[in-house]
Amino acid sequence: MPAKSKSQKSDRTILLADEDVIVRLAIAEYLRGCGLPVIEAATSEEAKAILQTGQRIDVLFSDAQLAGPESGFALAQWMRRNRPSVEILLHVSVASKTAAAFALCCPPDGNENSDSHALTAKIEALLAQRRRRTGAQQSPRTALRRKQR
To answer: Under a CB-based contact definition with an 8 Å cutoff, are residues 133 and 120 in contact?
Structure first.
């Protein structure tokens, strides 16, 4: 768990959109450990519903390849039209997501981001454990897309 940062970033509210519950929960827990308020969404539709309530959101942190009818890219385009002041972070890999979470938590100081690497390893271990338990060779995203057909 990261130490709470005393930076001005701690008052920023993060909307975290990722359909993979393991990735979403681990990153949300990490960000909350830094003192950042996090609201979670599994799809772009959920994210839009949250945004349409008028809830203050400072950063959209989204998987670029969200499952469902709209991708993270489509969500980002909608965000630019409807909430242009919100910062947008789109990521695909677990490593890039954890590096972005680390950057949100910690001010740049040139130190090695071992917290980011530890979080990446934790998420990858949980994902591997899920694959072994379910015998699934496909990601939840692939399974969901096949189901939607």
So the answer is: no
Looking at CATH, the fold of the domain delimited by 10-106+113-148 is given as Rossmann fold (3.40.50)
- When the pLDDT of each residue in the chain is averaged and rounded to a whole number, the result is 82
How far is residue 27's CA from residue 123's CA, in Å, rounded to a whole number? 9
Cβ distance 64 to 71 under 8 Å? yes
pLDDT tens for 60-94 read: 999 998 877 889 999 999 999 999 999 999 999 98
List the one residue out of 140, 116, 138 whose CA is nearest residue 42: 140
* Burial grade of 79 (CB within 10 A; 0-12, 13-18, 19 or more): buried
Look up residue 87 and give its amino acid.
E
The rounded distance, in Å, linking the Cα atoms of 14 and 17 is: 10
Q: What is the pTM of this model?
A: 0.77
* pLDDT tens, residue by residue, 126-142: 888 888 988 865 555 55
Instruction: Give the start-to-end residue ranges of the domains of the chain.
Output: 10-106+113-148
Nearest to 71 by CA among 109, 45, 37, 107: 45
